[in-house]
Amino acid sequence: MEAKNVGLRNVTVADTKISNIDGENGKLIYRGYDIMDLVKNSTFEETSYLLLHNDLPSKKELEEFHKMLVNARDIPAPMIKNMENFRKDAHPMDLLQAFIAELGGYYVEHGTQKEVSYEMSINLIAKMPTMIACWDRVRREEEVVAPDPTLSHCANFLYMMSGKKPDPETEKILDTCLILHADHSFNASTFAAREVASTRAHMYSAISAAVGALSGQLHGGANYEVMKMLLDIGSIDKVEAWVKEKLANKDRVMGMGHAVYKTYDPRATILKELSEKLAAKTGDPWFAITQKVEEVTIDEMKRLKGMDIYPNVDLYSASLYYMLKIPMDLNTPIFAISRVSGWASHVIEEAFAEAAPKPALYRPNADYVGKYCGPEGCAYKPIEIREDE
Ligand SMILES: CC(C)(COP(=O)(O)OP(=O)(O)OC[C@H]1O[C@@H](n2cnc3c(N)ncnc32)[C@H](O)[C@@H]1OP(=O)(O)O)[C@@H](O)C(=O)NCCC(=O)NCCS
Predict the structure, then answer these.
(1) 248 Cβ closer than 6 Å to some ligand 1 atom
(2) What gap in Å lies between CA 190 and CA 341, rounded to an integer?
(3) Alpha-carbon distance 374 to 53, whole Å?
(4) CA-to-CA distance for 112 and 177, rounded, in angstroms?
(5) Do 48 and 125 meet the contact criterion of CB atoms below 8 Å apart?
(6) For residue 259, how far is its CA from the centre of ligand 1 (angstroms)?
(7) Number of other residues whose CB lies within 10 A of the CB of residue 144
(8) Catalytic: 110?
(9) Which of 136, 183, 265, 314 is catalytic?
(10) Is residue 26 in contact with ligand 1, taking CB distance under 6 Å?
(11) Phi and psi dihedrals of 34, rounded to 5?
(12) Ligand 1 binding pocket includes 189 (Cβ within 6 Å)
């Protein structure tokens, strides 16, 4: 039997023009542009256009794209009614996944299959923030806030959650976070989206599958776990003992380590700077505690396993969102409202690639290892003569 490639590590399954990770040098490229450059000069809306359309938009194209997003921000009124029927402690990722799948039941898109996919992408990018902001208000038993067409994508999301227009600094911080999370090559949720798209299922099905994959704590759910960890630690003097105990018990320190980066995740570099700046302004202790977690984990992993480990995107985003007063369980949904631009671009690439090698239905193999009586040859036993194990 051949050795298995557990977790599909180092298996190349497709060609992509959307993004590339240079794990050795800590670089992330969207459609040829370094994210460091995009963070300095672009916006989330423009970056979404870039991911979907293969190049940066002209001024007119960006204005039209912005208009399309603004016009698609509303969600169907019955969806808000449905939210009222949810348990108020339901996880926002569960709700998001369910309502994305539900979109297919509300809208009829027109045009070629490719045009329909673009229209669905606009609907998702525009409506997912509305879903999350509305849910956050419904669960707090507050009136939902209608979208404000004069605001940017990011500012409108913050406004719909809080009912107040954000100051430019807050808007810029969150917009930067959205740019940084927008795509990341063939990560677990993107692969889930592409795998569903490979069956020719539509965009909403593929994206709801991706949201399910992102919710797991080894993937997007890690940013929530990081904030839980920081609150559990509580103060900087407790970090060392906390991390040492965790690692001695063979547990994982969330926000550390990455399947591809063998050096500092470039997104963590930027998020760390933002978190440090914000903490200096607010006086919050969370940046300093996070930095200490990073230092102790690096030292301990070296000592215990001789292994180099670095922060990933989730380590510093957790404290940043907390300092922006965003409820902790919205950390992963915010990841999703950004990553949807990447997911949608991958679904379109998967379904409509024009150049060879054209994607095919994903269908890996597995080794069948029989349990009771060898791989085959079990004789069917009537239920009356079966015994409890
Ligand atoms: C992301 C992650 C799954 C990538 O891991 P990977 O490179 O595929 O490596 P593995 O999961 O196979 O782990 C390799 C070894 O490193 C250890 N390791 C990796 N990340 C670790 C972490 N954050 N804390 C403690 N140990 C860790 C594993 O325990 C394992 O040790 P072992 O070989 O003795 O069993 C892993 O680093 C992790 O679980 N991180 C925490 C969750 C997280 O932050 N996820 C967000 C990712 S963006």
Answers:
(1) no
(2) 11
(3) 52
(4) 34
(5) yes
(6) 7
(7) 17
(8) no
(9) 314
(10) no
(11) -70, 135
(12) no
Residues 59 and 114: beta-carbon distance below 8 Å: no
Using DSSP's 3-state secondary structure scheme, residue 351 falls into helix
Ligand 1 centroid distance, CA of 188 (Å): 14
Q: What single-letter DSSP state applies at residue 212?
A: H
List the domains of the chain with CATH numbers: 6-218+327-352 (1.10.580.10), 222-322 (1.10.230.10)
| Structure-token pair, residue 120 | 């669905």
Query: Model's pTM, two decimal places?
Result: 0.94
Please give the Cα distance from 20 to 38 (Å, whole number): 14
CB 156 within 8 A of CB 147: yes
Q: Which residues pair with 22 in a beta bridge?
A: 27
For the record, the structure tokens of 68 come out as 């399309």
Ligand 1 center to 83 CA (angstroms)? 36
Q: Which position among 258, 265, 329, 346 bears the catalytic label?
A: 258
Per-residue pLDDT for the chain (389 aa), expressed as one digit of tens each?
A: 566 788 888 899 999 999 999 999 999 999 999 999 999 999 999 999 999 999 999 999 999 999 999 999 999 999 999 999 999 999 999 999 999 999 999 988 888 999 999 999 999 999 999 999 999 999 999 999 999 999 999 999 999 999 999 999 999 999 999 999 999 999 999 999 999 999 999 999 999 999 999 999 999 989 999 999 999 999 999 999 999 999 999 999 999 999 899 999 999 999 999 999 999 999 999 999 999 999 999 999 999 999 999 999 999 999 999 999 999 999 999 999 999 999 999 999 999 987 777 788 999 988 887 766 666 777 888 999 988 87
Atom 11 in ligand 1: residue holding the nearest Cα: 259
d(CA 378, CA 370): 10
Catalytic residue list contains 15: no
Contact predicate 319/284, CB 8 Å: yes
